[in-house]
Prior knowledge:
By secondary structure, the chain is of the alpha+beta class. Helices cover 19% and strands 34% of the residues.
Amino acid sequence: MLLSVSAYVRLPLPLPIALRRFGEWIALPELEPSRRVRSRDAFDLVCTENNEWRGVAVFAHEANGWSVFDDYTGYLGSLPAERWISLAGDVELVFAGYNDSVPYGQLIVVCEGRIVREFLHDLQDPSSNVNHGRLELERSKLIDDWVDAAWFVDSDELSDEAADEGTLLLYRSDGSLGGFFAAAPTHED
Length: 189
């Protein structure tokens, strides 16, 4: 059985500007300076020999005029929706993710400095579920459960843009997720 975990945030900004903004916004200490890497090498660089995350790992790249930040460790999904407003600033922001082993799906869209869509469906913690606002695309397909959030991620052409190279960001965890970073997924090239 293949399990899928995918999360990203995207902003319609050139990568150098988005990287600077993201670094200031995340407010975590760097484990090491950011660096350009091939995407196929990124997981090996952010995991220990015991297949554990070294910290909060994000792979940033450009896709069709957007800067995309792929969240390898799931840290970004732990942040409250209101926090995304400051990262967005005066541009649109989309954060989306899912994990089919939990199962869990999330979507946050910020436009013009306000949250226009906030969705969270977590079968393990239904008390955290949120479903506010609607997007234009939901006229034909409602995002109403974690499977729909996964559909959004998988059908978003920017989330699946296969970047050959990008910028690897590695931050020290703030400890808010406890043992969340204990196990990294295995992968094969």
